[in-house]
Structures are given as C-alpha cells and as structure tokens.
C-alpha cells in the first residue's frame, strides 16, 4: 500500500494553505508536518536538507519530493484528474486562471514573506514596514480586482473552481491580518465570500489546523 502523503507546512503560510485546499478538494488524506516559521524551524539544518530554499510547502507524494505551491497544485490536478479540475482545459480560461494565480504568487505574496518583513522591521522600523506593506498589497489587489471584473462568475474565472481561487482566499486573509482595507475591491470580497462557503476551503483554513494557536481557532 502506498504511504500517506506528507505535507510540511504552517497554519498561516499562504503557500501551504493553497496546497491544503487542493488536497482537500481532491480528497487526499495526508500527514500534517508542522514547520513553525515564527521560530525559524525552516532555517534549521534538518529542514534545509529537505528544501535548500528553506521554504514551505513541501509535499511528499508518489515517491516524489515536491516544492513550490503552484507546481504542486498542477501535479495534483494532472495525476488526480477527478473533479474539480483546477487547471482548466480551455487555453483561454487556463491562461486567465494562471494569470490571477501568478499576480498573487509572484506579485503580492513575496512582499509579505516572513523573512522579508523581519528584515524590513530591522532596517526601517515597524511603522515604515506597515506603510510599505500596505502600498504593495493594495497595488496587487487592485490588479486582481481588475482581472476579476473581466473574468469572474461565481468564482475567479467563471463558475468553476480553478487554481486562481486557491490563491485568492489565503491572500484575502493576509490582507485582513495586515490591516489592508479591501473596501474598494467588491468583486474580490464577493468571490472570496462564495469560496469560504465550500467545505474543502473551510477545512483548509488557517484557523482550523493542528498548529493553529488556541486564540485563533473557530474564528
């Protein structure tokens, strides 16, 4: 019998969160291995052997050791083709979904990376860091809003779930976490509200994990 997949992740890591949603949607049971980013476990010698980039998530599945959230999601979708299909077959829809996912993955998330924020606090202080973060996250959300106005139906791209949706929910959570207002982005808020109704998204939420601090659970 194949061994259960293993996911190295952290409850509040948006990249890990995306993969948790994909695993839940595909109904893949897995072992949850905690990597506490706040205490620097990702910088340990032991973890560096697993991923020299010292980042999560890592997914061990099918005898493979996979890194980077979007390629992991694509692998899961290609090897587990049951519905929902997260990478659309239609090339136009697929391009739109991937573009939204990349706005978040490459154009927003790196600015809120734990290591980046720690460096910013050390160099420019907490207040300037918050101003910097608000500027770049708002700029990214403005791009997402523009894209969703053109592409969204019930979800990010039409009425079927795609890789874009798996990226959106964790990023909206991060906006709230960093006190970045989304009041000017009603399409984002509407789509996010629809996604949060889905059981797989609820199961994967940052506040529903085994390493979620007690003060966040159930909120």
TrEMBL record:
For this protein, the record's InterPro entries field holds: Glutathione-S-Trfase_C-like, Glutathione-S-Trfase_C_sf, Glutathione_S-Trfase, Glutathione_S-Trfase_N, GST_C, GST_Zeta, GST_Zeta_C, GST_Zeta_N
Q: Which CDD domains match?
A: GST_C_Zeta, GST_N_Zeta
Q: Which GO terms describe its cellular component?
A: mitochondrion
Instruction: Print the keywords alphabetically.
Output: Phenylalanine catabolism, Transferase, Tyrosine catabolism
- Note whether Transferase occurs among the keywords: yes
Span of domain GST C-terminal: 90-214
Q: Where is the GST N-terminal domain?
A: 3-84
Organism of origin is: Brachionus koreanus
Cite a single GO MF annotation: glutathione transferase activity
Family annotation (Pfam families): GST_C_3 (PF14497), GST_N (PF02798)
* Family assignment from sequence similarity: Belongs to the GST superfamily. Zeta family.
Under what name is this protein listed?
maleylacetoacetate isomerase
């Amino acid at each position: 019998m194949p061994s259960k997949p293993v996911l190295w992740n952290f409850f509040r890591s948006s990249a890990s969160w995306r993969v948790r949603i994909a695993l839940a949607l595909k109904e893949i049971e897995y072992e949850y291995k905690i990597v506490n980013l706040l205490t620097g476990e990702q910088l340990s010698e032991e973890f560096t052997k697993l991923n020299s980039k010292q980042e999560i998530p890592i997914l061990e599945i099918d005898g493979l050791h996979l890194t980077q959230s979007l390629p992991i999601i694509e692998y899961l979708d290609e090897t587990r083709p049951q519905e929902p299909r997260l990478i659309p077959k239609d090339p136009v829809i697929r391009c739109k979904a991937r573009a939204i996912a990349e706005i978040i993955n490459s154009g927003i998330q790196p600015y809120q990376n734990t290591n980046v924020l720690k460096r910013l606090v050390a160099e420019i202080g907490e207040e300037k860091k918050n101003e910097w973060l608000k500027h770049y996250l708002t700029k990214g959300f403005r791009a997402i809003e523009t894209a969703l106005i053109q592409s969204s139906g019930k979800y990010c791209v039409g009425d079927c779930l795609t890789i874009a949706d798996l990226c959106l929910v964790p990023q909206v959570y991060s906006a709230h976490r960093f006190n970045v207002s989304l009041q000017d982005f009603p399409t984002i808020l509407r789509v996010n509200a629809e996604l949060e109704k889905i059981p797989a998204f609820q199961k994967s939420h940052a506040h529903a994990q085994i390493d979620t601090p007690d003060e966040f659970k159930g909120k």
